[in-house]
Amino acid sequence: MRRLLVIGNWKMNGSKVDNQALLSAVKAQSESVSHADMAICAPFIYLPQLGDQLSETSINYGSQDVSVHVEGAYTGEVSASMLSDFGCRYTIVGHSERRQYHSESNLLVGQKALSTIQAGMVPIICFGESLEQREIGSALDVIGSQLQAVKSVIGDQGLLKSVIAYEPVWAIGTGLTATPEQAQEVHQFIRGKLGNIAEEISILYGGSVKAANAEDLFKQPDIDGALVGGASLDADEFINIAKAV
Ligand code: PGA
User: Fold this and answer.
1) Tens of pLDDT, residue by residue, the chain (245 residues)
2) Is 135 a catalytic residue?
3) What's the pTM value of the predicted model, to 2 decimals?
4) What is the rounded distance in angstroms from the CA atom of residue 196 to the CA atom of residue 194?
5) Residues with Cβ within 8 Å of residue 245, at least 6 apart in sequence
6) HSE on the CB side for 102, CA within 13 Å?
7) Which residue's alpha carbon is at the smallest distance from atom 7 of ligand 1?
């Protein structure tokens, strides 16, 4: 049975004071959300704050990245077991901003997913095509090879412990959203590639999701929720997206 999820990705935003206000506002309205599980992925340094403020709620939290290494001389890295130690349920791996600005390869993304799973958490594995790739008609090929590369590292058993997010790069932070039909086409393609485990895996859409477009996206049969960037920084927007599930 696929879980319906709305996950906020705060990216590199926030401060102790702002987070306190945002989390209080989300918490205050969270009981009005009945059909979706909610989570927030925050910068590493604020995860203890999320742990404190979300402890009495059903809202989970996680990181936006994770090391492939278990421990040792890896300056600046944060391991999966450290994240688990701080109560994280999720890590985002393979976000297009990591692929683009930190040259993360498909193989590395698969390894990050594996280290997350081995620490008992759930990787949210992001796939998506660039505008150029869409325009030349290779979107599905690109996504198929991103998925295949991750699958070769974590296998079906790993995928069963993962969440997938389809995030067209051209729709992230641009205000452009894939139409519900464009998104559904890719989600259906991904589900087809997952074979006999397909019905067990949640596939989220991400890319300029807002309260105003969420409902039409969620009506699509293969869209199981959203990974929400900018709109997750506004409590009312975030809650209204979750209510639209
Ligand atoms: P956006 O970001 O909602 O601001 O487009 C989505 C994401 O990058 O996860």
Assistant:
1) 788 999 999 999 999 999 999 999 999 999 999 899 999 999 999 999 999 999 989 999 999 999 999 999 999 999 999 999 999 999 999 999 999 999 999 999 999 999 999 999 999 999 999 999 999 999 999 999 999 999 999 999 999 999 999 999 999 888 888 899 999 999 999 999 999 999 999 999 999 999 999 999 999 999 999 999 999 999 999 999 999 99
2) no
3) 0.97
4) 7
5) 4, 6, 33, 35, 36, 214, 218, 225
6) 13
7) 229
How many angstroms does the Cα of residue 8 sit away from the middle of ligand 1?
9
Is residue 193 within 8 A of residue 230, CB to CB? The reply is: no
Distance from the alpha carbon of residue 117 to the mean position of ligand 1, in angstroms? 24
Nearest to 162 by CA among 194, 128, 208: 194
